[in-house]
Specification:
five-stranded antiparallel sheet, alpha+beta
């Protein structure tokens, strides 16, 4: 029988493979969206495991959903706008919960931190982002946690 770590790792790999076409390098930086996919898959697997007390189906399902979500968040913002958006994220994560932090470049958007809590000893914040990308409004929810003084998407 697989232990929880094995299930989560397997589910993360499954999610990465399932999202492999979406994890290709982006147009401007040449960087892969694989990190967002993998971190989302791991977080989804952990949430699925915790919510279901280790049920393998929930772990795999959580990892797949988390992988796709992590990949989607990493692709909504054009490379030219990432600096503007990055400042808004940082200000939101360090600012007051519920405040709206806007950014504008070629596209525009905002981020709102919706909740703050501790998870495995780390300070975490849930957030909602809204991005107008190529004329379409896109809403995403996510979580960022502090690690070694820096915010990381999980």
């Amino acid at each position: 029988m697989l232990n929880k770590s094995g299930l989560i790792a397997g589910a993360a790999m499954l999610a990465l493979c399932a999202g492999a076409t979406g994890a290709m390098a982006d147009d401007c930086s040449g960087h892969s969206h694989g990190t967002g996919t993998v971190l989302g898959a791991i977080a989804g697997g952990l949430i699925g495991s915790a919510a279901s007390h280790g049920n393998a189906g929930a772990v795999v399902g959580g990892a797949i959903v988390g992988g796709f979500a992590g990949n989607a968040i990493s692709r909504d913002i054009d490379c030219d706008d990432r600096g503007y958006a990055s400042r808004a994220y940082r200000d939101s994560f360090d600012g007051e919960v519920g405040e709206r932090y806007e950014w504008r470049g070629r596209e525009r958007g905002y981020v709102v931190t919706t909740r703050e809590y501790r998870w495995h000893g780390r300070l975490c914040r849930d957030f909602t982002q809204v991005v107008w990308h190529h004329g379409r409004e896109r809403h995403r929810n996510g979580t960022a946690c502090r690690r070694h003084g820096e915010w990381e998407f999980v």
